[in-house]
Amino acid sequence: MLMEDAARNAAQKKRGSATLKLMRTNYSLYIMLLLPLAYFITFRYIPMTNIVVAFKDYSIFKTVWESPWAQTGGSLDLFKYFKQAFKSAEFLRVLGNTITLNFLDLAFGFFFPVILALLLNEITFRKFKRFTQTVLYMPHFLSWIIIYGMAAQIFAPQSGVINIMLRNIGLGPIHFLDDKLLWIFTYVFLGIWQSAGYNTIVYLAAITGINPELYEAAEVDGAGRLRKIVHITLPGIRQTIVVMLILNMGRILQISFDRPYALGNTLVRSVADVISTYVYRVGIVAQQFSLTTAVGLFQSVVCLIFLIGANIITEKLGEKGIW
């Protein structure tokens, strides 16, 4: 027993000395790491202490720590604002809208970048390939205000290009941005158009990591383009697809503010109002900071649960997760 302990201690000391030696050898890399580490601690982790606002009766005239803990009827009630949120029909509606829109984005938009990456990889004419990539990437760099302006012109009931074409064949006008069901379709379509091209970068990078000898061997065996895609390219990027799917599942309750806010209007508010716009309207405009902080904390916890759950399920199915 003593010999085993001595051997274990010796092994630990050896590992410790090897680690110190490695740090001395690469000290410049560790010094370079200090700046991003300081950034994340200062601007990401220290501000997280303010989540206590969700458990306090916060007032803008007091600091976070001076504000009293949440109370109901004179007694301590730390989950006061969580209860208030879940008793609110408005919050439950925006929660349902957020899940619905994110699920539709995931269901219809997740595989578009994969398909585009496979198609771009098959283009052999380099100049045309670069031109196509540039055209596909460009929408990503447009703000949603600009995209809404374009959509308002294209989908306008009377003067929009789409409705003019429909009117010429005896249909329309169709109110794409004013009808609730059609607004959801337009929202998802514009989201795919804006992000699909840029998201292909990840998959194209994964494709470049596939051994080209596999394609050469398949060509010798008489495999066509489709068979090479099915049996070489897709298995080669499967791990990347799984990781991206897990990360997207982790954002099931995270939704940007600018997209639904820019595309929404009073006619479709019942389906366009999501957590981000609710937080803006109730938290910033109505100044109910404790309530919206509680909503944001709930949103983050649920996203974390989805992320961990998706990773566990992926590992159970035999795939490699993100950790």
Overview of the structural elements:
With 323 residues, the chain is mostly helical. It folds into two domains: 2-51, no CATH class; 88-316, MetI-like (MetI-like fold). Helices cover 69% and strands 1% of the residues. It has helices at residues 2-25, 27-45, 80-86, 89-109, 111-121, 126-137, 144-154, 161-168, 180-208, 212-220, 225-236, 238-249, 258-263, 269-272, 275-285, 289-316, and strands at 71-72, 75-76. Strands 1-2 form a two-stranded antiparallel sheet. Strand 1 and strand 2 (75-76) form a beta hairpin. Helix 5 (111-121) crosses helix 9 and helix 15 runs antiparallel to helix 16. The longest helix has 29 residues, at 180-208. The radius of gyration is 26 Å and the shape is flat.
